[in-house]
What we know:
Layout: H1 3-13, E1 16-20, E2 22-23, E3 26-27, H2 30-41, E4 47-50, H3 55-65, E5 72-75, E6 78-81, H4 83-92, H5 94-102
Helix pairs in contact: 2-4
Amino acid sequence: MDIMQVLKDQIESNAILLYMKGSPNQPMCGFSARTVQAVMECGQKFAYVDVLSNPEVRANLPTYANWPTFPQLWVNGELVGGCDIVTEMHAKGELKELLESAAPQE
């Protein structure tokens, strides 16, 4: 499968998806650490992809997303943004609302 199709499938099949360096339990850069902390504080389950262990994703996602850096938070198929945007939204309470609206209802 083409990497662009893989990215599309990952983004479409996960309501809340974080592309990051490392994992939520062990982020491998400060930006990923701050972003994952903001997302986790909102209390919703989310999927993640470690771009360090997926070099093809790391190489192609910036083109697919038209966003040059990591982390990248995607909600309902839309790119929300990176660390600055996510942490700013979290500080304003907007991130929690967005993630709650995206989370699958139990």
